[in-house]
Write a structure and sequence with these properties.
The chain has 11 helices and 14 strands. With 390 residues, the protein is α/β, with parallel strands linked by helices. The chain folds into 3 domains: 108 residues, Nucleic acid-binding proteins (OB fold (Dihydrolipoamide Acetyltransferase, E2P)); 140 residues, Rossmann fold (3-Layer(aba) Sandwich), CATH 3.40.50; 74 residues, Ribonucleotide Reductase Protein R1, domain 1, CATH 1.10.40. The strands form 3 sheets. The chain has a 6-stranded mixed beta sheet, covered by helices on one side. It has a 5-stranded mixed beta barrel with strand order 2-3-4-6-5. It binds guanosine-5'-diphosphate (GDP), magnesium ion and zinc ion. Zinc ion binds next to loops.
Length: 390
């Protein structure tokens, strides 16, 4: 989980013509993209839709969200420009009757994850359970380090607060604060802490991750009341066949914000560069911000004048993860795979991929026949759900 890809050029300013619309990609299947238009873009089509057209009712009342089924312009394909869930895109050639359009431009990405493949994530919500399964500080640290290595802000949520005492909850809170985290402790069963959690999720893109059995799906079902309905429409189609394993979809939270659930991972790889590992422990990072080790490539083991080595609780975990990262790095160096090493170094983030990134080679184009059938079936569902919600 949580491998970070290459960064887009965020400094580039994209000019859009007045007839173009901006939106966000909520889901992807093969060559099709569901794009939700920005609400601020909803006004102009009041003059374009006739009374019998499917989106016409939106002109009169307050703006409703419009989701369009889009293809990608050939020009983007030729450029090798991928379109990922979470991408901000410009669409054109909008067919308001059929709810279709073409993506003409992908705006620069702020962040990009490979696993799950999703762009512009603002926050990683790491969910663990306090009991059932019993929280394991070592496994929790493994997930935290993996999440930190993306350099996307991490919010820690501890679920099943109902299964331990208030005193035990406070103990965990104190312990995690010493690690540098301020966990949101919740219980879905007893509706504890959910408003506070919600307040962290509005107006941003959050990806939920954590081991299986901790309540991630229960949480997303709680947060998105119409998820079951959505699953029967868009996701139901998307989750079929070969796309299942890498499928990711953004869901809209009723009060704003977008959230993506991911399958559980019980053992994320620690494949970061050994020299970067300390940065992924907030309590070590704090020490490095305050002072410097004598050696710039200090691994904080037995080097002289090290500011990281010390009696902090997770120092032992650091040493264990460091061994793992060194084994990984050594294997990469010995493999003679010059390309992957260079690639990792060039990204300057010390991350070596265990899985290929979402790249052009992996991009598979369905046959024309499949394409047309898929499009009709998918569009029928989108249309039905639009009708249902009116
Ligand atoms: N006691 C308790 N059980 C919960 C809570 N939230 C979820 N569960 C249970 O935990 C189990 C796993 O939940 P699920 O959402 O499938 O976890 P996921 O694998 O992380 O998606 C289910 O049996 C849920 O009913 C909670 O707040 N308290
Ligand atoms: Mg689940
Ligand atoms: Zn050091």
């Amino acid at each position: 989980m949580l491998s970070r890809g290459e960064m887009g050029d965020a400094s580039e300013v994209v000019q859009t013509a007045s007839q173009d619309f901006l939106g966000i990609v909520l889901a992807v299947q093969a060559n099709y993209y569901w794009v939700r238009l920005d609400t601020s873009c909803s006004a102009p089509y009041s003059g374009q839709a006739s009374s019998e057209q499917s989106y016409s009712d939106q002109a009169s009342s307050e703006p409703k969200e419009v989701t369009l089924l889009c293809t990608r312009r050939t020009r983007l394909k030729k450029m090798g420009q991928q379109v990922a869930v979470g991408d901000r895109v410009q669409v054109e050639e909008i067919d308001w009757t059929d709810g279709r359009a073409a993506i003409s431009q992908v705006l620069p990405r702020g962040t990009e994850l490979d696993r799950p493949p999703i762009a512009n994530v603002d926050q990683i919500l790491l969910v663990f359970a306090l009991e059932e399964p019993t929280i394991d500080p070592f496994q929790l640290s493994r997930f935290l380090v993996k999440a930190e290595s993306t350099e996307i802000p991490v919010l820690l949520c501890l679920n099943k607060g109902d299964l331990i005492t208030a005193a035990a909850r406070q103990q965990w809170r104190d312990r995690l604060q010493a690690w540098g985290y301020d966990p949101v402790i919740v219980s879905l069963r007893e509706s504890m802490g959910l408003d506070l959690l919600y307040s962290h999720l509005s107006d941003r893109i959050t990806v939920v991750c954590g081991p299986s059995g901790v309540g991630k799906s229960s949480l997303t079902n709680y947060l998105i009341p119409d998820l079951a309905q959505r699953v029967n429409t868009v996701s139901g189609k998307l989750s079929r066949g070969r796309h299942t394993t890498r499928h990711v979809e953004l869901f809209q939270l009723p009060l704003g914000g977008l959230i993506a659930d991911t399958p559980g991972f019980n053992q994320p790889d620690l494949n970061c560069a050994p020299v970067d590992l300390a940065q992924y422990f907030p309590e070590a990072r704090q020490r490095l911000d305050a002072a410097s080790c004598q050696f710039s490539n200090c691994l904080h083991r037995d080097e002289p004048n090290c500011v990281v080595r010390g009696d902090w609780e997770r120092y032992e975990y650091y040493l264990t993860f460091l061994e793992e990262a060194i084994v990984y790095q050594t294997a990469i160096d010995r493999s003679g795979d010059a390309e992957s090493t260079t690639k990792a170094k060039n990204r300057g983030e010390g991350l070596v991929q265990t899985e290929p990134m979402l790249d052009r080679k992996k991009y598979r184009r369905p046959s024309r026949r499949t394409t047309k059938q898929d499009l009709r079936a998918l569009y029928r569902d989108v249309n039905e759900s639009a009708t249902d919600s009116d």
